[in-house]
Amino acid sequence: MTHLAVPKTYKLYIGGAFPRSESGRVYEVTTAKGEFLANAAKASRKDARDAVVAARGALGGWSGATAYNRGQVLYRIAELLEGRSAQFVEELRLADGITAAAAVKQVEAAIDTWVWYAGWADKYVQVAGNANAVSGPYFNISTPEPTGVVAVIAPEGEGLLGLVSVIAPVLVSGNTVVVVASEKSPLSAITLAEVLATSDVPAGVVNVLTGSAAEIAPWLAGHADVNALDLAGAETLDWVDLQVTAADTLKRVLPPEHGVPQPSLARITFFTETKTVWHPKALI
Amino acid sequence: MAASKQRFLDYAPAPESTSILNLREHYGLFINGEFVDGGGTPFATISPATEKTIAQIAAADANDVDRAVAAARKAYDRTWSTMSGADRGKYLFRIARLVQERARELAVAESLDNGKPIKESRDVDVPLVAAWFFYYAGWADKLDHAGLGANPRSLGVAAQVIPWNFPLLMLAWKIAPALAAGNTVVLKPADTTPLSALIFAEILQQADLPPGVVNILAGPGDTGATLVNHPDVDKVAFTGSTPVGRLIAKSTAGSGKSLTLELGGKAANIVFDDAALDQAIEGIVNGIFFNQGHVCCAGSRLLVQENIEEEVVERLKDRLTTLRLGDPLDKNTDIGAINSRAQLDRIRTLSDAGEAEGATRWSAPCEIPAKGFWFAPTIFTGVETSHRIAREEIFGPVLSVMTFRTPAEAIAKANNTPFGLSAGIWSDKGSKILAVADKLRAGVIWANTFNRFDPASPFGGYKESGYGREGGRHGLAAYLTSAPVGAARTSTRKAVR
After folding, report:
1. Which of residues 159-188 of A touch B (CB under 8 A)?
2. What is the mean pLDDT of chain B?
3. Residue B254: which of A240, A248, A279 has the nearest Cβ?
4. ipTM for the complex?
5. A162 close to A153: Cβ distance less than 8 angstroms
6. What Cα–Cα distance (Å) separates residue B82 from each residue in B86, B209, B348, B354?
7. Chain A neighbours among B 89-148 (CB < 8 Å)?
8. Between the CA of residue A136 and those of A283, B110, B298, B446, B455, what are the distances in Å?
9. Rounded to the nearest 5°, which phi and psi values hold at A254?
10. What Rg value do the Cα atoms of chain B yield, rounded?
11. How far is CA A172 from CA A67, A109, A166, A205, in A?
12. Active-site entry in B262, B309, B393, B464
């Protein structure tokens, strides 16, 4: 007796849950040859706003966790990804039309990216911060802190690696994320969300929207409760308009990159704020 | 009591002499190492304490901006970017020493033009200016250690627009790191306070700084807009109001220009009931009445624990009664003049709004001089978080007092603002200070002190107080890039004006 396949319903990932788009909209995801694979949710303005609310709600807990804890949580994503790599390879092969070998390579790179960034969680503060020798009897220290809620436009290519390469650096310091996945490659994004949901990442820390980046990005760029905007994958969008919109609330904006961003400390520190604390020393 | 206090405080006038000044009647634009005429309409810079004209100042028009940017570009390409870091540093050391040598003159000029008390310009502003150049001078040949990897590169021509509250100090915050990193500069001082920048230009001549490395253009706000939007500018650094910062962020979007903004604030100064109150009272006074409250990081919202509110407010009023308001050049003056009529109008408007919205106003009983722009130190009690005086930056000697019961409430109220520049914490309990400091969303936290500045200490805001840091190693990053040439993303789209 042959087994009739049970296809997965791909939904959004907001606040640790998998809701459909409140708009009820979906769009068709096909193989490179045009064969039907799935209907992905097409997120709306309301979904984006819900995601920002979830991200803001999760910020206190995630940014307040110890760096060692955040490092372990990020490392555990790599562990789970490793265990499910066959599923990602299959999804990438079908949806992105790449060879199995290329898909394996991409999944492995995504796993290694998580491991690399996980290791930074308890080190970036030491590298980016310092004590300051001020001219007076004061203790004075500068340390980086997370910027807050970061909205991210994921790269269009390499659906899994592109997504991981932009959300991992934002998470390291304790920011929370609303990410718009590659429009062409939403399936691996939602499967990654399933990995996150079953890992130790608290609900709301990562929120994944699928659909049209051109439609959703302006709402995120203009949202007053979003602190920073990563336009990594916005190269083909009207990203200058997004930057102009973001200026209304003086968001920190990282401009588009061509392709998948390389792992870098600069991607971590861009989404941090340097806080300098002074305290007098007694004259004894 | 009141009578004896009056007698105790009865000082004879002790004005600093202006004979040390050697002012010209007219100041030109400083372009390519020389003072030249400007194409804009010249304007008078006045003393806000007397409303008397100090000097006539040339204003730059668009052609002058072009000339200055071209001079800065040429100096960048041919001289400054190819000079060794050690030599760049030596020029900066020279400037630091010249500022020290001419410190008294600069302090008098600053107090005359800005209205701030001579004790502040003499003991705070000018010494910090020298310290800033000395600090960054030493960085010029050590950029590999700035944390940006080996061989970080300068950005090119920096357009810098500064405010009127610390005219010469803001100039130093901008020029010193820019030059140390190897950039050249076109700087526009505020239109009410161009004097010390133009005297500084004379210092640059004495230092024999190569022509075009620093160009100084006085003029109105339009001159600043023309400068930051100039297509041959690589870097824009602005200190000023949040609305103008927003405009600059929009107009430079997609241009590939690197941007740092140091904007407004509405700092909370949190006083717990276990604070050392003598120090806290002095800290509150210094926090909001230093420099007439014309300080972006001023502690303009006093959050005091409810059980000590009455005592704190009473002691504050007592202390404010002893402050001397008057001639900025008098060495005993605590509160100088408001910088301009426009700013005085804004302070009055917001203070009136405070009363209209239901807060209780108290002003120190001091004599207001007949001429000039003055505002007595003022406290509002019964302020609610929704009041304009609790939300908007007043930029004047006006303190809004609110209360809290728990640390969590203090933190929530302190963070309840779109700004995030600075904050103060007063408590004798170290663990409480550190826990609260962690949770405040502000770039500078002063615990059991306030309004401390140092060239080694990064300064700058969270949220709508801007981005980037000035001071310290972090301040260098605003003028350097580790990216290879041409990596900056630009759009061919026309910049938004």
Report:
1. none
2. 95
3. A240
4. 0.95
5. no
6. 11, 14, 52, 56
7. 131, 147
8. 11, 25, 21, 14, 12
9. -100, 120
10. 22
11. 8, 18, 11, 11
12. B262
Q: Give the residue on B whose Cα is nearest the Cα of A140.
A: B457
Torsion angle, alpha carbons of B174, B177, B181, B183, to 10: 20
B384 is a catalytic site residue? no
- Give the separation between CA B374 and CA B340, rounded to whole angstroms: 9
- Which runs of consecutive H residues, i.e. helices, occur in B242-340? 242-251, 277-289, 309-321
Q: Which residue has the tokens 């040339």?
A: B58
pLDDT tens digits, one per residue of A187-226:
999 999 999 999 999 999 999 999 999 999 999 999 999 9
Cα torsion for B373, B376, B382, B383, to the nearest 10°? 30
| Residues B340 and B164 sit within 8 Å (Cβ to Cβ) | yes
Find the residue in A nearest to B128 (Cα): A135
Report how far apart, in Å, the C-alpha atoms of B456 and of each of A28, A136, B452 are: 56, 11, 11
**Which runs of E-coded beta strand occur in B141-196?**
153-154, 157-161, 184-188
Q: Does A101 touch chain B (CB under 8 A)?
A: no
Give every strand in the sheet of B398-404, ordered side by side: A130-131, A138-146, A272-280, B444-447, B422-426, B268-271, B301-305, B398-404, B378-381, B360-363
How many C-beta atoms surround the C-beta of residue B123 within 10 A? 12
Spatial CA neighbour of B310 closest among B383, B397, B403, B378: B403
Rounded CA separation A213/A179 (Å): 10
Asked if residues B444 and B296 have their Cβ atoms less than 8 Å apart, the reply is no
Which amino acid is residue B487, in one-letter code?
A
* A272, A248 Cβ separation under 8 angstroms: no
pLDDT digits (tens, 9 = 90+) for B436-455: 999 999 999 999 999 999 99
Phi, psi of B419 (to 5 degrees): -85, 170
Question: Cβ(A163)–Cβ(A214) under 8 Å?
Answer: no
Compute the distance between CA of residue B291 and CA of residue B396 in angstroms, rounded to an integer: 9
Give how far B277 is from chain A: nearest CA, Å: 15
Q: What is the amino acid identity at position A186? A: P
Could A247 and B246 be called an inter-chain contact, meaning their C-beta atoms sit closer than 8 Å?
yes
In one letter, which amino acid is B246?
A: R
Do the beta carbons of residue A22 and residue A37 sit within 8 Å? no
Q: What phi-psi label fits residue B151: left (phi over 0), alpha (psi between -120 and 50 degrees) or beta?
A: left
Residue B7, C-beta contacts closer than 8 angstroms, at least 6 positions apart: none
B362 close to B299: Cβ distance less than 8 angstroms: no
Dist. CA B294–CA B303, nearest whole Å: 20
Q: Give the burial string for B39-72 (b: 16+ CB within 10 Å, else e).
A: ebeebebbbbbbeeebbebbbbbeebbebbbbbb
Question: Could you report the per-residue pLDDT of A231-241, keeping only the tens digit for each?
Answer: 999 999 999 99
**Displacement of CA B279 from its chain's centroid (Å):** 25
Q: Flag whether pLDDT at B489 surpasses 90.
A: no
Residue B393: which of B449, B459, B461, B315 has the closest Cα? B461
Q: What angle do CA A38, A41, A44 make, to 5 degrees?
A: 160
The interaxial angle of helices B309-321 and B277-289, nearest 10 deg, is 60
Residue type, B59: A
Q: How far is A60 from chain B (nearest CA, A)?
A: 9
Q: How many CB atoms lie within 10 A of CB B27?
A: 25
Q: pTM of the prediction?
A: 0.95
Looking at residue B124, what DSSP letter applies?
A: I
Residue that is written with structure tokens 């304007």 in the block = B43
Single out the residue of B382, B68, B408, B170 nearest to residue B270, CA to CA.
Answer: B408
Contacts of residues B483-489 at CB distance under 8 Å and 24 or more positions apart, as own/partner, are: B485/B153, B488/B256, B488/B258, B489/A255, B489/A256, B489/B254, B489/B256
One-letter amino acid of B309: E
The values of phi and psi at residue A48, to 5°, are -65, -40
